[in-house]
Amino acid sequence: MPSHENMTIWMRPEQLERTGPGRRPRRSRAEVTTAAVQVADGEGMEAVTMRRIALELGTGAMSLYRYVASRDDLIDLMIDAVMGEIDLPAASSGDWRRDLSLVAEQTRMVGLRHPWWVALANRRPTLGPNSLEVVEFAMTTLDGFGLDVDEIASLAGMVSDYTYGAVQREIGWLDQARATGMDMAEWMSGYVGPYVAQIISTEQYPMFTRSIRESQVPHLPPEERFRYGLDRVLKGIAANLPTGTGHGENTSQP
Questions:
Q1: Domain over 96-239 is classified CATH 1.10.357.10
Q2: Which of 23, 63, 163, 213 could make an SS bond with 104 (beta carbons 3.0 to 4.6 A apart)?
Q3: pLDDT, tens digit, 9 for 90 and up, residues 118-146
Q4: Angle at CA 141, nearest 5°, toward 140 and 145?
């Protein structure tokens, strides 16, 4: 058995972190996590330090280590806490398209509420209880089609990868709009418009030129752009399901 210091946060019951010399801490791990999420939402992850969270809670920085052993542990707790906001039913409906769409839509909404979370959750698997619930739900939607577990994980991962990537781009545009005072249309026409016109005039990039002149998707509202891409991902998943199940439901579900 590894020492407590080498255990993931999920293997360390909270009472282990609440022991030590002196009086018992008056805070809980959940309170520390909530405070950290609020700071990240308001000021970004760079503001999340043990000293700052202690200040928010009105306690000493060193006392936080009775609840959370390190900032990395705190980040894991924050990621999983936000994962808990992804609102999913207790069981799959049996309609894999509807269920995977729900996972994607819920993830997008949560990501837009917590912009710092998207990049972290996409590159830092935590295996916390809320994260595992989301993964379990997504993979269960594709169970029962005769796919092996690697195929299930890969196809469910396609939805996850698309969702996080799309939300990160959307957040990037929102950040750009805040920084410049211009929305996407204004930025494209006013700031980069002359440069794009110059590129088109060279005739070196015919597909880029065609996309500028003909593309409709970039002009859709953000939620419609998201659903357009998601629909293409779901069609790709359908192509990998056994014949006759691409538009149907998971027959293993009641």
A1: yes
A2: 163
A3: 989 988 778 899 999 999 999 999 999 99
A4: 95
Residue 3 has pLDDT above 50, yes or no: no
DSSP 151-197: HHHHHHHHHHHHHHHHHHHHHHHHHHHHHHS--HHHIIIIISHHHHH
Same fold, 4-83 and 96-239: no
Q: Does 237 score more than 60 pLDDT?
A: yes
CATH, range 4-83 = 1.10.10.60
* CA–CA separation, 163 and 106 (whole Å): 10
Delimit the domains of the chain by residue range: 4-83, 96-239
pTM: 0.84
The SS3 of residue 94 is: coil
Q: For 156-173, how does the pLDDT look when each residue is reduced to its tens digit (9 = 90+)?
A: 999 999 999 999 999 988
Average pLDDT over residues 38-55: 95
**Whole-angstrom Cα distance, residue 57 to residue 48?**
13
What gap in Å lies between CA 45 and CA 116, rounded to an integer? 6
The four Cα atoms 160, 68, 88, 127 give a dihedral, to 10 degrees, of 50
